[in-house]
Amino acid sequence: MSQPLCPECRLNLVWQYQGYFCPHCERRVIKHAACHDCGHPLESLNACGATSYFCAHCNELKSKSQAVISFTLADKTAK
Asked: Three-state DSSP class for 66?
């Protein structure tokens, strides 16, 4: 898997406090998974170190390769 990039500055994200963070933008980044068939959000299913996804709209289990992954910046937090 390639290193995820910040959607704003396109630099590598770091894993911090159980989520992605862009040190350059100083903001949290949220990972989204969408169904490649219908575009609806996917529910993440984690078990035994493997990640699968479920699409409630298609009513189907989806593999990682069937998920369209994107990242968005979270709202800025007060310092």
From this structure: helix
Find residue 32's DSSP bridge partners: 70
* pTM given for the model: 0.78
pLDDT for res 1 = 55
Collapsing DSSP to helix, strand or coil, 65 comes out as helix
Percent of the chain having pLDDT more than 90? 75
What are residue 60's DSSP bridge partners? 55
Q: Which residue, among 59, 24, 52, has the nearest Cα to 38 in the 3D structure?
A: 59
Q: What sign for the dihedral angle of Cα 51, 61, 66, 7? A: negative
Q: Any idea what the Cα angle at residue 78 is, between residues 76 and 79, rounded to 5°?
A: 120
Which residues of 1-79 form beta strands (DSSP E)?
14-15, 20-22, 27-35, 43-47, 50-55, 60-62, 67-73
